[in-house]
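Thread: "does anyone have the structure for this chain?"

Original post by V.I.:
We have the sequence but no experimental structure in hand. Need at least a predicted one for the grant figures.
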Amino acid sequence: SSGINAEWPLRPGGTSNSTNPSAMATITRNTVFTNVAETSKGELFWEGLEDEVDLSQVNVTSWLGDTDWRPESGKPSSHPNSRFCTPSRQCPVMDAAWEDPKGVPISAILFGGRRPTTIPLVMEAKNWRQGVYWGAAMRSEATAAAEHGGKVIMHDPFAMRPFFGYNFGDYIQHWLDFGNKEGLSLPKVYFVNWFRKQDGKFIWPGFGENCRVLEWIFNRAKGADTAVETPIGVLPKPGAINTEGLGPLDMKSLFDINKSDWEAEYDAVQKYFNEQLPQDLPPAIQQELNSLRSRLSDM
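Reply from O.Q.:
Generated one for you, C-alpha cells below.
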C-alpha cells in the first residue's frame, strides 16, 4: 500500500470528503477502482457518499451488476473490500521529498490494528527491540480484506501476514538487525489503535481527529517530555494529547491497562509463536515476551 502507487480500501461508510478529503483529492484522476458502483452519469459511488451524490437524480449500477440499485435493496452497492490504486504523487499532503534518491530520514514507524479492547489509543516502544516485538506480535480484528468470516482477533504480524515473501523468523531478524548496525539513527516505534470500544461504541472519534495523536508522536520524536513508562510501554501523560473541541471523551478508558486482558494477550502471542515459529523465533523476541510477562506479574 505504498511506493509509486497507493492502494487502499474504500471502507463502506468511511471514505468521503468529510472523513478523508486528502484521499478524495488524490483519486480524482489516473485512478483504478475495483468493485465499486457506478451512476448513470458515469460517476463512481460507494457507501459513505450518500451526502455527496443525489441518488434521486441518478440510477446506480452495483458492483454485482444490479442496474437499479437502491439503498433499500438490502445489499451494499460496493464490495466491503472495494479499493482504489492511484499514483502517490497525487496526494495533496505528500511530502515534496518523498522520492528523493538520497533517501528520507524516518523519525517514527507506526503499527496499528483494530482492537476493541486491551490496546491503548497509542503507545511508544521503550527501544527498537520492543518495537520489533510489537510488529511480530500484532493482532487485529478481521476485516473484509482477511479470510476470516467474523470479527475475530487474528494474528497479523507487521500487518504483512498474507505478504511475507520468505521465512517469518528471518523477516523478524531482519528488523532486529537494524538495531545492531552502527551509525543508524533508529526511528521511534509506536502502536496506534483508533478502534477501542466502550459499551459497543468507539471511544475515539477517529478519521481526521487522529492528527491529534500524530501531533503527540511528532512532539515525542522531537524529544518532548510528554510520556510516562508503564508495564506495557510508554504512554502519553494525562493531558498530553490535545482534545480541545472534542467534547466529552473518556481518555482514561482509552489508556486503561487491564491486567487480565494483557495476560490473555501474552498467552495468545506465545501460543502463536510456538505454533508458527517452533525453531525460528529469534531469541530477542522471546526475551521481550518473557519481559512483558514479568512486568505484568508485578502489576
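V.I.: this helps a lot. The chain has a mean pLDDT of 91.
O.Q.: and The two ends are 39 Å apart (CA to CA).
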